[in-house]
């Protein structure tokens, strides 16, 4: 290896001689009878040391900067620049020595984590530089949420301390190009109302309703005909949408059965019907219905709905009526529930079991909201 100096040299009146046989280092001597080669080498070195405007090249005769280190082609020797190495405690002992004049100084930490003072932001081994503006040693290894890949620094990594991004109405934060999630079970990102810390939470924990909607596709004639009060008939429905998620419900259209998974649900049954009259029987003016809603793991809760309507003026003329039955229930175990509507207890004498009705398609629906766990 050789070192080359170039530039404007300022004169020095000190001379140094080089003793090549004393541990290969520079030493001083006052012997006046040194040979000319050693004298010239010493003079050259002295001139370089006191250079005012110079460039230093290592392994190159044409340095391109203040310090230019060219690789050594000899594979037997390692290359690189080794800077001072400290443990955190060793560097902390020198706190008072680092001020504005040391701004930008580089060191390498071998071990330890900073606790206080100028070393308080040191998080482990790596390169650090001194920032006199903050009076702190700053990491060059980008361990707090920054990953270095090749020559690029990119977001992504492990945060090793709390990190805050401060925005304003003028300086906003935008994230573009996010993919659309195919899952309705993904967590949502929420912000703490006091600290602004970002967190994730499930939709169920946040109480955001997730619907499943069913409907009767076509009119069902003679519904509840010959069905006594207190008994039910199936209402065959199809599913329009199910956004209750993997912890919500499933539907088997072959047997008209909904399977609930544990959770809190709000169930709303909407019906629309036209009632018949039968010759020789009183007119039906009050129609009564009920729904047995699922509860717990196997129980049910009956809720009635009564619809008042006009009487048909003649045999087999229809009377329009409708209503809504809503119930909130907690399911504690997987529960199979058949969609049914029953004949209630409070209808008048003209609404007996021999009289049927038409349950109106599209207008008869079932809405289920999963509102929590």
Mean pLDDT: 81
- Helix/strand-derived category reads mainly beta
Separation of termini? 73 Å
Relative strand content: 35-45%
- Binned, the helix content reads under 10%
Number of helices: 3
Gross morphology: rod-shaped
**Biggest β-sheet, characterized?**
7 strands, antiparallel
What radius of gyration results from the CA coordinates?
43 Å
**CATH top level assignment of the largest domain:** Mainly Beta
Based on DSSP secondary structure assignment, what is the total number of beta strands?
Answer: 25
Q: So, CATH architecture of the largest domain?
A: Sandwich
Topology of helices and strands:
Layout: E1 3-8, H1 36-49, E2 53-58, E3 67-69, E4 85-87, H2 88-92, E5 106-111, E6 126-131, E7 136-139, E8 146-149, E9 152-155, E10 188-191, E11 198-201, H3 203-206, E12 210-215, E13 220-223, E14 232-234, E15 238-242, E16 249-252, E17 257-260, E18 263-275, E19 286-295, E20 299-308, E21 319-331, E22 335-338, E23 340-343, E24 357-359, E25 365-372
């Amino acid at each position: 290896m050789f070192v080359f100096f170039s530039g404007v040299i300022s004169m020095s009146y000190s001379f140094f001689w080089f003793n090549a046989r004393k541990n290969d280092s520079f030493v001083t001597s006052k012997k006046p009878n040194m040979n000319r080669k050693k004298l010239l080498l010493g003079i050259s070195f002295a001139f370089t040391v006191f250079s005012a405007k110079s460039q230093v090249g290592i392994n190159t005769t044409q340095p391109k900067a203040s310090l230019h280190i060219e690789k050594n082609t000899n594979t037997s020797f390692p290359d690189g620049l080794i800077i001072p190495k400290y443990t955190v405690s060793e560097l902390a002992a020198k706190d008072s020595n680092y001020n504005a004049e040391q701004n930008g100084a580089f060191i390498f930490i071998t071990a330890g984590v900073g606790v206080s003072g100028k070393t308080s932001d040191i998080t482990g081994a790596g390169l650090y530089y001194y920032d006199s503006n903050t009076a702190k040693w700053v990491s060059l290894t980008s361990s707090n949420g920054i990953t270095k890949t090749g020559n690029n620094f990119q977001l992504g990594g492990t945060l090793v301390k709390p990190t805050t991004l401060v925005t304003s109405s003028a300086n906003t934060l935008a994230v573009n190009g996010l993919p659309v999630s195919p899952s309705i079970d993904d967590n949502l990102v929420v912000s703490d109302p006091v600290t602004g810390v970002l967190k994730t939470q499930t939709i169920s924990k946040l109480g955001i309703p997730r619907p499943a909607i069913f409907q009767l596709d076509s009119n069902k004639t003679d519904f509840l005909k010959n069905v006594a009060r207190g008994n039910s008939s199936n209402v065959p429905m199809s599913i329009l949408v199910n956004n209750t998620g993997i912890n919500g419900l499933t539907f088997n259209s072959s047997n008209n059965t909904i399977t609930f998974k544990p959770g809190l649900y709000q169930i709303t049954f909407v019906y629309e019907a036209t009632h018949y009259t039968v010759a020789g029987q009183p007119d039906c003016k009050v129609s009564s219905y009920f729904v047995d809603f699922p509860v717990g793991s196997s129980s049910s809760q009956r809720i009635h709905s009564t619809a008042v309507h006009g009487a048909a003026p003649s045999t087999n003329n229809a009377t329009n009526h409708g209503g809504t039955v809503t119930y909130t229930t907690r399911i504690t175990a997987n529960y199979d529930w058949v969609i049914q509507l029953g004949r209630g207890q409070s209808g008048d004498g003209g609404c007996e079991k021999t009289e049927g009705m038409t349950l109106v398609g599209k207008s008869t629906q079932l809405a289920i909201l999963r509102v929590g766990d």
